[in-house]
Structure formats: structure tokens, C-alpha cells
Amino acid sequence: MYLKVVRLQLDSGRVFFSSNATSKPTSSIVLEGGSCSRGEERNSLVVEGRHGSTSTRIIFPTTAVLEGWETALTLHQSGVIRQINRAEDVWRIADKLGEGAFSSVYRATAQEGEKVVALKILPKRLLPSSSDRLRVFREIETLQFFGGDGVISFEGCAESNDSFFIASELCEGGTALDVAQASEREGPLPEQKISECIRSVLLCLQRVHLRGYIHRDIKAENIAFKVKGSLRDTRLLDLGLSLHTDIQAATLETVGTDGYAAPEVVAGKPYALNADVFSVGALTLLLCWCALRGCWDFPMY
């Protein structure tokens, strides 16, 4: 069982730790030559040294990781994540809509209710680390929390032995990346269209920020349009990296996508909601490039 460590202090070879941020340390262990460092992927604090004649290595999960696993446990115990044998038990899968590094998205119809959804399938073999899987649970929790307010609507989820499945609102208009790439076939993007798109994205992002969340991965692939041919009715996708700003440790994580991430994020410095606004600026530059050149050769890609 993990000890939830909020306060960790290394002093004169003795490691003090406490699960209460305001109280004095409640436990300790003596280590000769003790040192404290970040663990793999910044998900833990590692304390190393010698305890008597024995080399000792203690790993303390960070608060954000512990909260992530608490979220996963809650989602399973409450029945939000259904345990199934295969996707076909719940959905009839049709054509593929898109593909990313960790998932594929398909048009699907629910066996119960016949509702057409976008079904994201995340094979567990592509999610080998605990942080990868925590991102899935975080996305499910956040989709539930927003309930479609500026982000894609949540339509259910499930888990099998080899995959996670997240069903969401189907957006027929594709993504901003699809629109940008289409400029090579259909000609330059009109300035009015770009203005409509960015305004809609900012309004969605404002709703997310007003509820205390940073998206942390705003990019063309994560902007969807509800209706084909219109860039006004926008939804934000992929909230797997989003976190509430109360989790202070999260504002030091280097996450996001190259070319869209703000300079302070890339540098590993503290950042806040304005990091998302920088990413919208990068998206604007991409769309303006397509408007001016009428072709798909943006350096970011």
C-alpha cells in the first residue's frame, strides 16, 4: 500500500516524510549519504542511500499520481467503466475516422439505443506505462465532468483484457487538421472561416478555463467541428492531459505537442492557463499559412 506523501524533507542523512502538508513530519528513516531525485517520468520522488549495511531505495508516488489511481478505482467501482469481452458486445463498428499514436477512432452504433458515436479504441499494448493508462482514466473523468460544455460529449466507456474504449459525440465536420490539409485540394482557406474557427475555439477554451482546467494539448488534431462545412460549432477533443489548476505539481510537467506547446512548458518552468492560449496562437498560424499559400506544407508537420 502506498503512503500518500505530501511533505518530504532530507536533512543530515535522515529522510522525514508526512502525509499532512501542514503538520511536522510524522515518520523518518536514517540514510547515510541520502539523496532525493525525480523518478521516471516525474511520477515519483526517489530517495536513495544506505541504511546500516544495506543500500536502500524508497519510491514515493507524487500526489498527482495517487489521485490518478484513486480516480481509476472510483471509475471502476461506480460502474462507469464497463468490463466487456470485446467491443462488439456494446457497439457495431463501422468505418475508421482517424488514427493517433495510441488510438484509433471509428464510427460506431450502440447496440442499446442505436445512437451513433465516435468510438476511440486504445490498445493496452500501446499504453505500457502507468502514466499512459492514467491519462485514459483522467480523460474519462474529465469528459464526465464537463458533460459537453465546450468539449466533446461523453457517451460511455468500457474495458476489455486488451483495450480501453471511449464513446463520445460524433462530429461530422472532421478536425482542424482535416480542414488545413483540404486547402491543398480545395484552395486557400477564407479569412472569415479562420476567424470563425479561432473565435469558436477560444469560446470553448474559455469554458474549460472557467471551470479551473488547463487542456495542455490544444492542436489542430484536437479541434473538431460538429457540422460538415461549418467551422463555428467547435468541440475540444482529447482531455487526457488536462488537469485542474489546483494540482500545482501538474504545472511543471513537460507535456503537449511540439510546435504547439508554450515556451515555458518546453523549458519545464511553471505555467498556467495562458499556455493553452499560446497553443491557440500556433493553431491560428497554421490556418493562416494555409490561407496564404493554399497548400499543405506547414513546417510544424
From TrEMBL:
<dbReference type="GO" id="GO:0004674">
    <property type="term" value="F:protein serine/threonine kinase activity"/>
</dbReference>
<protein>
    <recommendedName>
        <fullName>Protein kinase domain-containing protein</fullName>
    </recommendedName>
</protein>
<dbReference type="InterPro" id="IPR050205">
    <property type="entry name" value="CDPK_Ser/Thr_kinases"/>
</dbReference>
<keyword id="KW-0723">Serine/threonine-protein kinase</keyword>
<dbReference type="Pfam" id="PF00069">
    <property type="entry name" value="Pkinase"/>
</dbReference>
<feature type="domain" description="Protein kinase">
    <location>
        <begin position="91"/>
        <end position="301"/>
    </location>
</feature>
<feature type="binding site">
    <location>
        <position position="120"/>
    </location>
    <ligand>
        <name>ATP</name>
    </ligand>
</feature>
<dbReference type="InterPro" id="IPR017441">
    <property type="entry name" value="Protein_kinase_ATP_BS"/>
</dbReference>
<keyword id="KW-0808">Transferase</keyword>
<keyword id="KW-0067">ATP-binding</keyword>
<dbReference type="GO" id="GO:0005524">
    <property type="term" value="F:ATP binding"/>
</dbReference>
<dbReference type="InterPro" id="IPR000719">
    <property type="entry name" value="Prot_kinase_dom"/>
</dbReference>
<keyword id="KW-0547">Nucleotide-binding</keyword>
<keyword id="KW-0418">Kinase</keyword>
<dbReference type="InterPro" id="IPR011009">
    <property type="entry name" value="Kinase-like_dom_sf"/>
</dbReference>
